[in-house]
Amino acid sequence: MDKHNSQITVTSPLLPPLEEFNSYLQQIWDSKWITNNGQFHQQLEKELAAYLGVEYLSLFTNGTLPLITAFQALGIREGEVITTPYSFVATSHSIWWNGLKPVFVDIEEDTCGIDPSKIEAAITPNTVAIMPVHCYGKPCKTAEIDAIAKKHNLKVIYDAAHAFGVTQNGKSVLKVGDISTLSFHATKVYNTIEGGALICHSAEMKYHVDNLKNFGFRGETTVVAPGINSKMDEMRAAYGLLNLRQVDAAIEARKQVAKQYVEALQDVQGIKIFQPMVDSFASSPNSLSPCRLNYSYFPIFVDEEQYGISRDALYEKMKANNVLGRRYFYPLITDFDPYKNIPSANPANLPVANKIANQVICLPMHHALSEEDVRRVVKCITEK
Q1: Spatial separation of the C-alpha atoms in residues 158 and 173, rounded to whole Å
Q2: Which residues contact 115 (CB under 8 A, 6 or more apart)?
Q3: How does pLDDT run across 260-310, given as a tens digit for each residue?
């Protein structure tokens, strides 16, 4: 295939060197210990906790199960959970799977995170928790959210699926709230093929979480809770150890791609770049950006009136040129059948989220994009 017309995918997995992975696989084969808290699992938990700047981290077999387990770990059995409509459905599904009711509030336009100023109006006597999302890796307004939670005695579970390695004011964004969760899916900045983690703040809670992810067993003959099987196996833990060695280089490569996009697109009429991306390269960053991003996604927002064609028309134009973007997140969670009849899902309640969902395209963003790839993506947008 002509490299100038080869397909450019929206993401590409970070893969460890095959020969090194094979060496780890040989060790696993020799030990015959392939799951249940093996040596690679234990090592990855320790190394990830150190890398991320947290004390208590539990590995999971995917990124959804820690979300589900978080409610169980905090003893939340009934009530309402305030959350965002602008996320992947795993966020709200985890609420439903626990027999809880999601209550949706609108988002901020610049950060795409939950709008703290909308939260208190949504609190009722049945509210038990808040579940914000660090959208595209940009931290929510955590101080404001946590203050509201403290005032109303609510738990806070942060869906940090996008926020691997993200820090704010020099501190891991995973250290706020009661629990944070990560996804290590193949599409993420750091991956273990499938995988995830739950971050908590005490040895007692980690012990409880580790029981819950192993059917509720505590020791050989005692079950203390109706847990589930969500343990990561040794193969994925080994894969994750190798990827941890190269994730910083991958994030730096993503940063360079983001810089090229910002420079090429920031003055295109009708195209708005995700503001934290712009701020991260500004000489005098504004108050939105005292943080280290991971450049997990590069969303743009298409104003049809100013740009001249719709978001969907641009999306199809890109596809016709073998450039695959992603309308992420579109549709909103609140547009899907399980949620659309909830009163808080009414579009009139969520004007910003609906606007953003109808304008967004995430451009190709991964560590392996070349300068020529970026030029092809930009050309689709700048040449009409």
Answers
A1: 9
A2: 105, 106, 107, 108, 352
A3: 999 999 999 999 999 999 988 875 444 445 789 999 999 999 999 999 999
Domains annotated for the chain, with CATH where assigned, are 18-241 (3.40.640.10), 248-382 (3.90.1150.10)
d(CA 101, CA 304): 35
Locate 249 and state its tokens.
């280089």
**If you ran DSSP here, which 8-state letter would residue 107 be given?**
B
Q: Determine the Cα–Cα distance for residues 333 and 127; give it in Å rounded to an integer.
A: 20
- When pLDDT is averaged across residues 197-226 and rounded to a whole number, the result is 97
Burial of 327 (0-12, 13-18, 19+ CB in 10 A): middle
DSSP structure string for 121-187: HH--TTEEEEE-B-GGGPPP-HHHHHHHHHHHT-EEEEE-TT-TT-EETTEEGGGSSSEEEEE--TT
Closest residue by Cα to residue 369 from 231, 268, 260: 260
| b/e map 127-136, b = 16+ CB within 10 Å | bbbbbbbbbb
pLDDT tens per residue across span 20-39: 999 999 999 999 999 999 99
The length of the chain, given as a count of residues: 384
Distance CA 42, CA 29 (A): 17
Indicate whether this model's pTM tops 0.90: yes
